[in-house]
Design a protein that fits this description.
Layout (H helix, E strand, L loop, with lengths): L2 H27 L3 H20 L4 H27 L5 H29 L1
Helix pairs in contact: 1-2, 1-4, 2-3, 3-4
């Protein structure tokens, strides 16, 4: 399996976790501001990765860069949710690990794509 397929699988699974987190935040805490932000950024990662596979090399790089930025934003919201006591330590560590794994794969994929473009 190549990096992009792993990335698609991981980002889709992560997006599903984010959707469940959003529902939990709304239902349990009636929290709508941060939950709206994290669902946008957390689900956008996989959408951009998926879309990246259907364009030119320049489009691929652009969409992967957007996904990378969305990953950084999602990481921020995960950290904020922990600091605000909406996530316990185990939930935080698990979500953060998944987010950072995706970010690391995106970074490696972008590095390869940019070097192949030259």
């Amino acid at each position: 399996m190549n990096k992009e397929n792993i990335l698609l699988d991981k980002s889709l699974s992560f997006a599903a976790r984010i959707v469940k987190l959003h529902k939990h935040l709304i239902k349990t805490y009636k929290e709508s501001v941060i939950s709206r932000q994290i669902i946008r950024s957390g689900t956008s990662i996989g959408a951009n990765i998926n879309e990246a596979n259907y364009g030119s090399t320049a489009d691929f790089i652009n969409k992967m860069q957007i996904a990378q930025k969305e990953t950084a934003e999602t990481e921020y919201w995960i950290r904020l949710l922990r600091l605000s006591d909406f996530l316990d330590e185990q939930e935080f560590e698990s979500l953060l690990k998944d987010c950072l794994d995706i970010k690391n794969i995106l970074t490696a994929t972008l590095k390869t794509a940019k070097s192949n473009k030259k």
